Amino acid sequence: MRSPPSLQGSVWRVGLFSLLYLYQGIVAGFALTALANHFAASGTSAAEVGRHLAVVGLPWVAQPLLWGPLVDRAVPFRMGPRRAWLVLSLAGAQACLAGLLLLGPAAGLTAISVVLFLHSLAASLADTATDRMIAGSVPAGELGRTSAATRAGFVIGSAAGTALFAWILEARGFPAAAGALLGLTTPLAAAAVLVREAPGDRFLSLRRGPARGEGPAEERVAWSSFARRLLASFRGRDAAILLALCFAIDLGLALFQVPFAVAMVQVHGWEAGALSRLQALLALLGGTLGAAGIGAYVDRAGPGPALRALLLACAAAFAAAAGLIAAGLEAAAGPVILGLVGVVPALLYVALLPTVLLASRDGRASATQFQIYMAAMNLGDVAGAGAAAPVASVVGPALVALGVAGLFLACARLAPAGTA
C-alpha cells in the first residue's frame, strides 16, 4: 500500500511548508499593508498606523516565551509531536478571522487591531510548530531551496493579499474584505490536516504517546534541563551577534518603510489602492524569481557568503534611496525607492533563514532557539514601527535612509565568522 502524504517526501515537505507560509502572507497582506494603507487614506496618522502594526506584531515578539517551550517540552501526540499543535492553532486562528466579521462596516482600527492581535497569538503558535517541523525534517543541503519556497509562498500570499484586499476594501468595504480573507485562508489551513510528520502518525488524534507501536512515549523534559540547554546555546559570541543582526535588520526596515508609505499617500497624493498594488508587485518579483536564484546560491555556496552579500546589497539600496530623496525626487521616483528598499531586503531573508536554522539545531530545544532569533526580528519590526513616527518628525527621510544603509553595512561587517 502507498504511504500517506508525510514530511518524509520532499514534494510533500515543500508543498506543505509553502502553503503554510502562503497562509501567513495572505493575512499579512491584509493586516499589515492593505489595511494600513486603507486607514492612512482615510486620514489615520502615521503614529496610529504604527501602533496597529506594533499591536498585531506583539505576539510574534513573545513567541519564544509563549510557544517555544510548549512545543519543545510537550509529550508527543499520536498525530505527530508538532502537527497536533499546528492543527489546533490554525483552528484557533481561523476562529479569530471569523471574529472580524462581527465588527461590522464601521469597525475602527483599534477594534480590528485587537482581533488581529488574538489571531497573531494563534498564528504564532502555528508558526512555531511549522519551523520546528522544518528543522526536524529538511536535510541541510535543501535548506536554501526550502527557504526560497517558503519565502516565495509568503511573498506570493502577501502580494496577492495586498492587491486583492486593497481593491475589496476600496470597492466593497471592510466586511467584504474580512469575509474574503476567511474564505481564502481556510483551505490553506486545512492542508495541515492532510500531510503527516511520519507515515505512521495518526490522521487525527489528540491522545499522547507514540503512534502504532513505535516504542515508549517520550517524557516531558524537565524545566531545569531545558533551560540549561537553551542558555548554553546562546553563550557564544556568534549567537549574540546573530541575535543582534536579526533585531537590527527589521528595525532598520520599519524605521524607513512605515513613514515613507504613509507619506506617499498623505503628502504625495498616491491612492491607497495604487500604493498597495505597487508594493504587492515589487514584493512578488523579489520573492519569486529572485528568491529562487538566491536559494540555489545558498545551497551551493553556503548561507554565510549569501547573507553577507545581501547585507551589502541592502546597504547599497538604501544609500541609493537616500540619494534620490536628497535630490528632491521622492515623489517622482517613489516606485524606484520602494523597489530598492523592498525587493532587496526580501531576498536577504532567503539567506538569513538557513543561517538561523543551522544555528538552532539543538535537539529538543530547537523550536525555542529558532523562535528566539525570529522574535529578535519581530521585536526589531515592532520597535521600528513604534519609533518610526517620532524619528520621522525630527529626521528627514534622506537621513533615515542613509542611517539604515549604515546599519546594514555594520551588520555585514559584524556577521559572525561561522556564517560567512
From TrEMBL:
Pfam families referenced in this protein's UniProt entry, alphabetically: MFS_1
GO CC annotations, alphabetized: membrane
Membrane topology: Multi-pass membrane protein
Compartments, record wording: Membrane
UniProt key word Zinc: no
Spans through the membrane: 20-40, 52-71, 83-103, 109-127, 148-168, 174-195, 239-258, 278-298, 310-329, 335-358, 370-389, 395-415
Name by which UniProt lists this protein: MFS transporter
